[in-house]
Design brief:
alpha/beta, Rossmann fold, seven-stranded parallel sheet, Sc_DH/Rdtase_CS, oxidoreductase, EC 1.1.1.298, NADP-dependent 3-hydroxy acid dehydrogenase YdfG, SDR_fam
Length: about 260
């Protein structure tokens, strides 16, 4: 992984803070983005003392259009930034029938809109230089949408599909794009009470998850599922989906619909 500057969103705690730590110790300078400037500065002070890298802290709420636009412009204009970690995001509890519309809109803004626009902001510049990295934090719920609430898995399915499309477009230009699909990870997305009800063997520590994700990046994986024992299982899933492609579009409906005509 060549030395460059990484911009990390949601960097004040959890997975984002661990990415900041690991990237700093790999010698990368950082631009850290989160709402809590005090937490960012405390993290930056520690990492600068430990790793001797340059770290800039930017307070921004990426669900706010003005803040998102400010970070977009930074990615477009700052040629030193060669890596992006799209980590900021939120989840929700409960079903769609009882959901608050404002919370749903905020989740779309953070999990979908911000990931899209920040990736787009850096993509052209990285493609021109023929290098760089975009890491998008998705979730295993992208593969099991019926398993949890309605919207969160859908947003993470978008992140996975978007990352794969980016890889197809930008990979030939020399840009690495990785979608990371964590399972249950000890972060603020889960309360301690929720985690206590789960078998310990099902819960991964954020540090362990990020280390596995970066190992996957080093291996050239475009999709990394840290807890999956054998990636051949995922590759078989992808091949099964690809076998559908020739039959997904045609001039006539399938014979099973003949009675409906």
């Amino acid at each position: 992984m060549p030395k460059t500057t990484y911009l990390v969103t949601g960097a004040s705690a959890g997975i984002g803070a661990v990415y900041a730590d690991r990237l700093a110790h790999r010698g990368h300078d950082l631009v850290l983005v989160a709402r809590r400037l005090d937490r960012l500065r405390a993290l930056a002070d520690r990492l600068q003392a430990q790793a001797g890298v340059s770290i800039e802290c930017l307070a921004a709420d990426l669900a706010c259009p003005n803040d998102l636009n400010r970070i977009e412009q930074r990615l477009r204009s700052d040629s030193a930034i060669g890596g992006l970690v799209n980590n900021a995001g939120i989840a929700n509890d409960g079903g769609i029938r009882d959901a608050d519309a404002g919370n749903l809109a905020r989740m779309i803004d953070l999990n979908v809109r911000a990931v899209t626009l920040l990736s787009a902001a850096i993509a052209s510049r990285l493609a021109r230089t023929g290098s760089g990295t975009i890491i998008n934090i998705a979730s295993v719920t992208a593969l099991i949408p019926q398993g949890l609430t309605a919207l969160y898995p859908a947003t993470k399915a978008f992140v996975l599909a978007f990352s794969q499309a980016l890889q197809a477009e930008l990979g030939p230009c020399g840009v690495a794009v990785q979608a990371v699909l964590p399972g249950i990870t000890r972060t603020a997305l889960w309360s301690e009470a929720q985690l206590a009800r789960l078998p310990a063997a099902r819960v991964m520590e954020a540090e362990v998850m990020v280390d596995a994700a970066l190992a996957g990046l080093d291996m050239g994986e475009s999709v990394t599922i840290p807890a999956l024992p054998d990636m051949a299982a995922y590759e078989a899933f992808v091949r099964a989906r690809e076998r559908l492609y020739p039959d997904l579009s045609g001039a006539q409906p399938a014979p099973r619909y003949a009675k409906a005509r």
